[in-house]
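Comment thread on ticket #2218

A.B. wrote:
> Attaching the input chain for the structure job we discussed in standup.
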Amino acid sequence: MSFLKGDTPKAIDETAVEIAMGARLVPRITIQAFCEHSQTAQLVESAVHDRRMSKVALTTHNGGIEGAIETYRSNPTPNLIVVETTLSPEEIPGALERLAEVCDATTRLIVLGHVNDVLLYRELIRSGVSEYIVLPASSQTIVSVITELFAAEGAAPIGRTIGFVSAKGGSGASTISHNVAWAIAQHLRQDVLILDMDFAFGTAGLNFNQDPPHGIADAIGQKVDQTMLDRLTSKAANHVNLLTAPVVLDRTFDFEEREFEQVIELAQKTTPVVILDIPHVWSAWVRQTIATIDEVIIVAEPDLANLRNAKNLSDTIKALRPTESEPLLVINRVGMPRRPEIAPNEFATSVECKLLGQVGFDASTFGTAANNGQMLAEVSSGHRANETFKLIGMHVTGRNTPERSAHKGAVLKLPFLKRKRA
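C.D. wrote:
> Ran it. Output below, let me know if you need it in another format.
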């Protein structure tokens, strides 16, 4: 039937022409496929050899829909799930609904089926499934579908933007943001891009032991495309990329209100998670940036000056983002010896922010990591703060923790297969 993706000679020729003319690359996404037949697994794996898929991280598993359900009961979901099913048209929607209950809200789904049924196709597409492909199919068909989802003109950005800002200078927003980025990269296996926006005093390069010749300064004030952004980005670790600050004082940096907008929007289109390390300043561009990103994390220490500033920030951010998510709070350096402190829960209540996490004071371990240009997990893998960084990362990227996703009666948030109202 013509309503499904086909593998006609004309379609294959058009794909070849598209590649030859420089087709858009699929961004750095993670794909996990669950197949019921070895031939299907080979088909999906062959798709990564297409030039457009050069940045994609793909893994294949056995088990079809049931295998995916079992996997995601205790693991976060990727950007895209591909599942093969041999179920009848009557059974497929119910099986996918059970899959949706253990998946994250941002995940997209492609179903590979063996039934050419127009009514099934319409039902799945209407309920939010990204595409239903009838097997047998070609790898070009699969690549074309993925390209349309993630790289086509007008495709929704895949990247989630999370900004970290200190309530008071030196409260540790940079350290927290870099360690959260590391946790996201390691536990979710998602590519993360850190934008160090403190041009004069940024520490992203130091914290990751990097000194690249180019960075974010080369992208500001210019017309940037994906190729240029890739060239300016340095790789700090597996799944961790940096746009470092120049850290020079021989000139000043006075930015227009929307100066960073182009870079942030482009980063969103090419990277699943974008971490903004925002300096402790207050200017038009900082206001504009905070107003437009997905999540804002205020990092504060548990003292009076931080409380005052965090309260001012919280109130201002809420006013700037009346229809967006409210700012979240992380309390840093809790339990510093001989320092009178405000209890974290009391601090959060006064600021009127959700307390997302608290990090204990440990000058020795954090200092060693900073001096070595390493993340905390590299210096002390068993440190309790690592779990805090992981939980922060899971929350701000919209991921469900294993404990929550395994609960019975979980709220169905996934775009595909929204629960029908009675």
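A.B. wrote:
> Thanks. Noting for the ticket: The chain is about 40% helix and 15% strand.
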